[in-house]
Amino acid sequence: MSDGDLPRRTVLKAAVAIGSAGALSACLDRSDAGDAPTGDPDAKPSRQHAWREYVRRDEHGNTQLPSHQILLYVDFDGDGPPTADDRAALAETLDGLDRAYEWSNEGLLHSMAYSPSYFDRFDADPAGVSLPEPRALSPFESPTFDRQDAVLHLASDHPEVVLTADRALRGERETANGVTVPSLTDVATVDSRRTGFVGAGLPAENQDATGIPDSQPVPEASPLFMGFTAGFRGNQATESYVTLDSGPFAGGTTKVIANFRQRLDDWYDEQSYDERVTELFSPGHAENDLVEGVGENLGADSDIDRFVDDVVADAKEYGRVGHAQKAARANRDPEGNVRLLRRHIESTDDIESEEKVASLHFPSLQRDIAAFETVRRSMNGTDATAATPAVRQRVNNGILEYIFVRRRGYFLVPPRRHRVLPTPDPE
Question: What average pLDDT does the chain have?
């Protein structure tokens, strides 16, 4: 942490991952962000997942997610429904965050989401919301399921912001940005702390992780370890579309968070650039030279809708199919609207180990968990494997050969008015 030759962003990212007082000190020494803007609780949007209007956007209007993010998975104290004292304590904590930081990428974006296990405390399901237990969605995966009561998601462009908020929430300091923030540990135990980063250059700076070839092939311009850009505005659901529009949780949404380990030696060492384009996007993208470099030339739309009906034909003709074309064919409603809003986070977390590995936290927002499950099953490409022996369960089947799901959890993100330990029918 004291090596002056390390790139500043690498030090800051490492500080977020470590999360200690020493890491915070080193982070503040290296950061030039100054004091973060303080918050006005009355200025916060009614939707916890309302981020797009409060973050940067590129020249094409694509959302630029905050660069540094932390996920705190928590279990609330005791058994059964929470008490009035529990609610008062958690309200003070979350209100403290609201006062400490502006709702923006320059301040802090955050959301509290609750699992099916939390609602089991009431022996009832959340009214008007389908929130099943997480499950395996392919015959070749066996993830650990995150069944903690809740997850608190923190995001900011400034690492010292998420670090300071994180330490206050975990009871390691009393204030954040000069504002008292009561500890989350007054009512809960932090079961798992996970970190990630978003943005061009950060994957390249962290490609010394296990799962990346020693040749350090990740392009500097790429926001992903896999070497391409993602999150095109035209291929994402809008925040309004994924928002629940009826019932007591209207204004909220559902959230799936998966964790993947990436093994990219073969991706880079055995596949040509065109083969990588084929397997990430579609054979048509490679055949028509639609992608240049990391794909920034695609602008606001990957043009994947041109190829969603070609999966079986492409499997037969090219012996490969694309990840994006498989997913996109299930990710449209009858009117053509995109169903999922994906907010992926690159990481070097190896959960429950100190090893640094190429990984990915994959939050997805949607009205109904069933939409996510349908899209995920479409990624299995079973029709392509039936069409030709060249496409197998993982091989030549999009990017399934290179990513391995390790954890998955399902959550309800209530509207702000019900973010504090909601009952199953709060209205």
Answer: 93
